[in-house]
Amino acid sequence: MTAKFLEQRIAIFPGSFDPFTKGHLDIVERGLKLFDKIVIAVGINPSKHNGTPATERLRSISDAVVSLKNVEVIEYTGLTVDAAKACGACAILRGIRSVADFEYERNLADLNRAISGIDTVMLCADPALAALSSSAVRELRSYGHDVTPFLP
Fold it and tell me: How far is CA 71 from CA 4, 11, 110, in A?
């Protein structure tokens, strides 16, 4: 058996600038069935001010996955593929909700593969948990609505 097969299979799941929802948690749990470890990488981009602040995202994601074994939450700047290489990931885990999501993610996967050689694994969350996108949750929250039913 070669050394490659003895290595831990790690996938990186990029955190968005939106709230971490039950749908995201479901993707992570499904990913743990395919990989030994999931690294949730929260992007820190100072030029993006319209999303949930990084400290809030890091805290909420860490709180949501605290009971899951083999899940780590990190922060990163720059490209997701660079963060994937840094943590030894063999794949980027992405969640999809619709055909439009799939088309966008497929194009992004092709680009990531060309840049880094790292593949992308796309998973759908359980429809009951992915009813609202994280950006819709963010918008509802901005209008003062209670979004706790959608958060893990």
Answer: 21, 10, 26
Active-site hit among 85, 97, 113, 141 = 97
* Residue 59 is among the residues annotated as catalytic for this protein: no
The reply to whether 150 falls in a domain is no
Task: Identify the CATH number of the domain in which residue 135 sits.
Answer: 3.40.50.620
Number of domains in the chain: 1
**Phi and psi at residue 35, in whole multiples of 5°?**
-125, 155
Which one of 22, 24, 37, 138 is the catalytic residue? 24
Is the pTM here over 0.85, yes or no?
Answer: no
Instruction: Answer for the pair 31, 121: CB distance below 8 angstroms, yes or no.
Output: yes
pLDDT tens string, the chain, 152 residues long: the values are 444 444 679 999 987 667 888 889 999 999 999 999 999 998 877 665 566 677 888 888 999 999 999 999 998 888 888 899 999 999 999 888 777 778 888 888 898 889 888 889 988 888 888 777 777 887 888 898 998 888 88
User: What is the extent of the structural domain holding 122?
Assistant: 7-144
| CA 125 remoteness from chain centre | 12
Q: Is 85 a catalytic residue?
A: no
Whether residue 152 is contained in a domain is answered as no
